[in-house]
Specification:
This is F-box associated beta-propeller type 3 domain-containing protein. InterPro entries: F-box-assoc_dom_typ3, F-box-assoc_interact_dom, SCF_F-box_component. Pfam families: FBA_3. The protein is mostly beta strands. The protein has one domain. 7% of the residues lie in helices and 40% in strands. The protein contains three helices and 14 strands. The strands form four sheets. The protein has a four-stranded antiparallel β-sheet, with no helix packed on it. It has a four-stranded antiparallel β-sheet with strand order 7-8-9-10, with no helix packed on it.
Length: 247
Amino acid sequence: DARSKKHKMVLISYSYHRDLDGTEFRFRTVCEVYEINSKGAWRPPASSSALGMVRLDSTSVFAQGHLYWRGFGRQNPKIISFSLSDEAFEVLPPPPSCHGIDQLYGLAELGGHLCLFGTATEPVQQHDIWLLRDHEAGVWDLHCRIDLNAAWPLEVMQFSICRSSPSPLAFIDDDRRILFRVYCKLSKEERFKSAYKLYAYNPATGNAESLGFLPHKSTPPELYEESVVSTGRPFEDIVSSSASQEA
């Protein structure tokens, strides 16, 4: 939290609860906040509005003082944000011209900004990389576009035959190239390999360099800026002290 200079943990959990008459189960989503190295306990945020729109099967992204998640909705990308300073949820307007992206989009952090990586299939097949310039104003910039219908090199065309949308991980080489994680389709003979492959894409030239497959059975790679802070007590004890986890 840039305002209070405190590190916070945000826990979102959900459960089903039966009505008092026992006839129906109801879905409940709960959010709790914990300040690292504080003597306090888990507490609710200032506002839980829009909490129910968070897709809990999506990974959160931290950038620009907010946590971001994909939200429910099929017509256009839905993005839900949580301000660590105000401790409130809100719906963030998606980038312009996102029609056709549908559910084929992902969120990441690039260069300290929220990144939306969208894949459109109609009328053309392309990948768009949008960066959030200003959260408060909801202003996005189109960083680059990968047109898969153009005569791109073979390595770039690999982006179009992977099983799921590629995931941008970081800017590299003084921000000249973008590191991508791609989940590739493997043949029966290749099952000993990891399905994850790394590419370095240069928006200026349109070229992509294959950096090879990751080690066998490795988990999807993520890059984080190193920031080590003592939690004051074991992480497992902090999580288990949550009222929602005890329930």
